[in-house]
Design goal:
The protein is an alpha/beta fold. The chain has four domains: 169 residues, Rossmann fold, CATH 3.40.50.11040; 174 residues, P-loop containing nucleotide triphosphate hydrolases (Rossmann fold), CATH 3.40.50.300; 236 residues, Gcn5-related N-acetyltransferase (GNAT) (Aminopeptidase, 3-Layer(aba) Sandwich), CATH 3.40.630; 101 residues, no CATH class. Helices cover 40% and strands 18% of the residues. Helix 24 packs across helix 28, helix 24 runs parallel beside helix 29 and helix 25 packs antiparallel against helix 26.
Length: 770
């Protein structure tokens, strides 16, 4: 029965160039046997198994490492959902199945699956909660989608053997037609390529500079448009951004372009999260170079998975991301595949006016940790030295346009979740919006509400993934709140309860044990060495997002105010941790949050240094803030010339301004002579840098109105971060180092007036009188 079911599913998938899902629900060992029966029945060329267990005779991956499948395709992918069902892994497995292929899911009994708790659920049970507090709503919703979407076969496995097996659904759609050639779309006109649709045949564009073979190798008009856009990379100073859902051929287009550029003599540097992710780029580049070289009588050029050499000296070569960002060997063109999976700080390395660069990224997919490329890097790219051209690929290549498995995965994992359309919320007034709780059961019962809320989080944040959907529905420590206008979600906040931990857990955390889901207490305890920090109860804003059509209209501030009012009596403090920018620092400071920490390293996804801020509600919360604000002030006095030497000066100024620790300026007479002399007379900054540092900290914390933005940057760069005069003068636009030195003295004149002792003011009078 199982073999016949698999053969029928595979036949229909091949004839329609779609994919099919086989679900074997029940005992795990019986599920493995059924998967083997199905695989043997269809005899695939390539099979991958994703499971927490080992011992399969096929290519194996662990659920947490399912991203190893990114950029690769298999005819059959088996996902074992028993011991550790990771939603991210499901998304990546779906994307790895080729057209005509099968996704095989091994699951517990579908009627009982929502009650099963596995190792992924353990990760949702953050202290002080236990795994019994985790719910099964995500799996309940997933099962509902499996039972209604086309193209999904379900077999309930008998506990006592094959004789008890029952086919709940055969998954056949009836889309295949007798006599249809494999790979063809039965609804298309005769002669139309599979999955392209009428009128979308690729063609060699007029006046193309790339070889005609590059366009003839394209499978859709979308792909040909992308290759055409890549032609601009022949000239330095250009950038191309290629965005596509999975299976649209963006990597192939990049490979054809890379080969064409190499044939023209260019040195093309390719990078991706791993060399295997760039395999398609090198395969297409090698094929094009070989074909063009053979046509000219030169034979096939040398090609490989990491390097393709073209006649005439051009080449396509691979380098790992960290190395590639240093631009080894001075390439002419850089191509970054799966850009969303790379840290923003590495992507910034390719913004060089002396070369051209392409950034290829997947949308509505989970190629990386999130949307750092779209949210953070896009702004820097547009503000940078490269002229940017955008290309979007919509037509599928690896499977048909109406592939039912793509539609199912998009719904089950909300891969296509979007906020409400602009027209539905534009013009909404913040005072008219309704504050409401987004209870998990309400979200489960209202797909539109769930889609808008989750879509807003996806669109507005760089790190939202399928695992977050499971957390939203099942994690006991999370709560969601929203502002709704005319029935549409205009702002949403995802909140996490933290702290309130017992003495034993706090001691373990202090001694180095990681405690899940308690980000702020963990940092304050393990990194900043405060064993009592995890005792007060906190509420952290994990995500907050406002619809872009009503941004800067006060919705975010209103939502936070409502959250504070609702939970203020339940917690000791509110907190937030985020990639610090001047704008966000201002937003959180105005909402009453104060800085207690700035990370020493950049966040891989955002490319920013992460700030932690607290807003106290009780005496315990105020004590926690007070001691960590003082520690932050003292830490930054020395750390800014060390670990924080490269932090943006506006970020430094914003973080320090939001620090409530009092500052006492207590300089000796000798130090005041140096400061007053450098400000009003012939003195030098170098004679007492510590005194200048104390005054700079005081001025920034108290937001001395006498200083303008440029002067604040000067105090940070030179005095607090200890940068050389030459680099400070160049960065801040002073005509010379002497002018920069004079400007520093001028900036300290009002600080002498504000903080100077009687002695300092008498010293100042000497120079004013003269």
């Amino acid at each position: 029965m199982i073999a016949a079911l698999a053969r029928d599913a595979k036949r229909e998938a091949e004839e329609t160039n779609e994919r099919r899902v086989l679900v074997f629900a029940g005992d795990r060992d019986r599920g493995v046997d059924a998967a083997y029966d199905a695989i043997e029945a269809v005899g695939p060329d390539s099979t991958a198994v994703v499971s927490a267990r080992e011992g399969f005779r096929f290519e194996e991956h662990r659920p947490r490492n399912a991203d190893e499948l990114l950029g690769r395709t298999r005819e059959v992918v088996v996902l074992d959902c028993h011991e550790r069902f990771v939603p991210n892994a499901l998304g990546r497995c779906v994307g790895a199945v080729d057209g005509g292929g099968l996704l095989v899911l091994l699951t517990p009994d579908l009627d009982l699956w929502s009650e099963v708790r596995d190792r992924f659920d353990d990760s949702l049970a953050v202290p002080p909660y236990g795994v019994d507090d985790v719910t099964g709503r995500f799996r309940e919703r997933l099962v509902d989608t499996l039972r209604v979407h086309p193209g999904i076969a379900i077999v309930s496995l008998g506990a006592d053997g094959p004789e008890g097996d029952r086919v709940e659904r055969d998954g056949l759609t009836g889309a295949a037609t007798e006599g249809t050639e494999p790979g063809a779309d039965p609804g298309a006109d005769p002669g139309t390529d599979p999955g392209t649709g009428p009128g979308s045949e690729p063609a060699v564009p007029p006046n193309a500079t790339f070889p005609g073979a590059a366009y003839e190798a394209c499978l859709t008009a979308d792909q040909a448009r992308a290759v055409r856009a890549f032609e601009s990379l022949s000239t330095p100073g250009n950038a191309v951004v290629v965005e596509a859902d999975r299976g649209r051929g963006k990597s192939s287009a990049a490979g054809l372009a890379a080969g064409a550029l190499a044939l023209a003599g260019a040195d093309v540097l390719v990078t991706a999260p791993a060399a295997r992710n760039a395999a398609e780029v090198f395969a297409r580049a090698s094929e094009l170079v070989g074909a063009v070289d053979a046509e000219s009588g030169g034979g096939v050029a040398e090609g490989g998975t990491r390097r393709v050499d073209a006649p005439g000296g051009g080449r396509v070569r691979y380098a790992p991301p960290a190395e590639a960002a240093e631009l080894p060997g001075g390439p002419d063109v850089a191509i970054v595949d799966e850009a969303a999976a790379l840290p923003v700080r590495l992507l910034e390395g390719f913004l060089d006016a002396s070369l051209s660069a392409a950034f290829c990224t997947t949308v509505h997919g989970y190629e990386g940790a999130g949307r750092g490329f779209a949210i953070r890097f896009r702004e820097r790219l547009l503000d940078g030295p490269l002229a940017v051209r955008d290309v979007r690929l919509d037509e599928p290549i690896r499977y048909a346009r109406n592939d039912p498995v793509e539609a199912w995965a998009s719904r089950a994992l909300l891969l296509d979740a979007r906020p409400a359309v602009d027209e539905a919320v534009a013009g909404s007034a913040v005072g008219d919006a309704t504050y409401r709780a987004l209870a998990p059961d309400d979200l489960l019962a209202d797909e539109a509400l769930l889609g808008e809320a989750f879509g807003l989080l996806v669109a507005a944040h760089y790190r939202t993934e399928p695992n977050d959907l499971a957390r939203l529905l099942d994690a006991p420590n999370l709560a969601a709140r929203a502002l709704v206008a005319e029935g549409r979600v205009v702002a949403v906040a995802l909140l996490a309860r933290e702290g309130g931990l017992d003495a034993e857990t706090r001691r373990a955390m202090y001694e180095g044990e990681r405690v899940r889901g308690n980000m702020v207490p963990d940092v304050l305890t393990s990194q900043l060495r405060d064993e009592a920090a995890a005792k007060p109860r906190g509420m952290r804003t994990v995500r907050i997002a406002t619809h872009h059509a009503v941004r800067d209209a006060g919705f975010g501030s209103r939502l936070l105010a409502e959250v504070h009012a609702e939970f203020g009596d339940e917690v000791d403090y509110f907190s937030v941790g985020y990639g610090a920018t001047p704008r966000l620092l201002r937003f959180w400071r105005r909402a009453g949050y104060r800085t207690v920490h700035l990370s020493t390293s950049r966040n891989d996804a955002s490319g920013e240094h992460s700030a932690i801020m607290l807003r106290p509600e009780t005496e315990d919360g105020r004590d926690l803030l007070a001691r960590h604000a003082v520690a932050f002030r003292d830490r930054e006095r020395d750390g800014l010339s060390d670990a924080h030497r490269d932090v943006d000066p506006d970020v430094v100024a914003g973080a320090i301004r939001a620090c409530p620790a009092p500052v006492s300026v207590d300089l000796t007479e000798t130090e005041w002579r140096s400061v007053v002399g450098a400000s009003f007379g012939p003195g030098m900054y170098d004679s007492a840098p510590g005194a200048f540092r104390d005054l700079a900290l005081a001025a920034l914390i108290e937001n001395a109105s006498e200083l303008d933005a440029r002067e604040r940057r000067l105090l940070v760069r030179k005095v607090l971060q200890g940068r050389p005069w030459e680099s400070v003068a160049d960065e801040l636009g002073y005509v010379s180092t002497a002018a920069c030195m004079r400007a520093l003295g001028d900036a300290y004149e009002p600080l002498v007036e504000r903080y100077g002792t009687e002695f300092a003011l008498r010293e100042r009078e000497r120079f004013i009188s003269d």
